[in-house]
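Dear support,

I submitted the protein below through the web form. The confirmation email said the job was done, but the results page showed an empty box. After a refresh the structure appeared. I'm attaching both so you can tell me whether what I see now is the final result or a partial one.
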Amino acid sequence: MPCLNQMNKKENINWGIIGVGNVTEVKSGPAFYKVKHSNLVAVMRRNAEKAKDYAKRHKVPKWYSNASDLINDDEIDAVYIATPPNLHASYAIEAMKAGKPVYVEKPMAKNYAECKEMLKVSKETGMPLWVAYYRRTLPAFLKAKELVESGTIGKPLMVNIKLYKQAQERNQTKQEMHWHVFPEISGAGHFFDLASHQFDFLDFVFGKVTEAKGMAENLAGLYPAEDTVSGTWKHESGVIGNGSWCFVVDENSVEDYIQIIGEKGEICLPCFSHGKLKLKISSGIKEMKFENPQHISQNLVQQVVDELRGVGNCVSTGESAARTNWVLYEMVKGYYKK
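What the results page shows now:
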């Protein structure tokens, strides 16, 4: 079994990816062979032809159709798990027990109980566990955090979130729909996939959520998961929040923003159309634009590699990500307990 201290002394970290689907094509996969001191040496997908094709297109030396074969490849130092959430826990636990640090896609797992088991195994094995909440490293979000911490908007008081999206599923059969709307795979619906980014960012800025309450319903009847959620919460810092999410609205009702209100002003930024921020204070309104890396998770992947090499720390941990899973479930649990 590899020793983490030995890995700290390595010049380069060799990665294997389990689950090379769409998210790994541009957003994440290339980061593992483009950031400093990182190599992508193997990929896995259950469909062997698709695994082989991905490896060929991205110039990856090895491919597998079995996850255990990749995990037990002695050349691989660490594993990135990019499968749907229902497989995160099992693959992460297997990898950590094999002595491989793990970087897993968000949300961390299908439910909070699985997150706790992953953290338990991480502690028992000594293998680090990180989660792909890359907004913690993007310039607009870092600027928002800086503005809060510098006192630019005074004492922060509350947060408002709105995320309203159209339903692609209106013109799809159940067979055509994405796994995001099937709770047995994703844990819930689009809310788990998208609101997880929002709550993780707020955890980053204001600390963990200590209270959370929500209501969730399926109002359009297009798929099994909830499609509309409303909730309130409180951070350990005292900041309170409220939010609403709906994934079946008309195109004229589409919304996407996080609003942070302080005693002396406010910050407003979208969560999913990256790179913009609006600051409102007594001296006026200032709009800012920021450039993101070509591969959106690149900055976070670099932090993971640096920590593995013993020269830095990653800001998105299993502990912080598990807290987000807890908040998400508190918001929708009434719908799933019916």
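Response: this is the final, complete result; the empty box was a page-load delay. The first strand starts at residue 13 and ends at 18.
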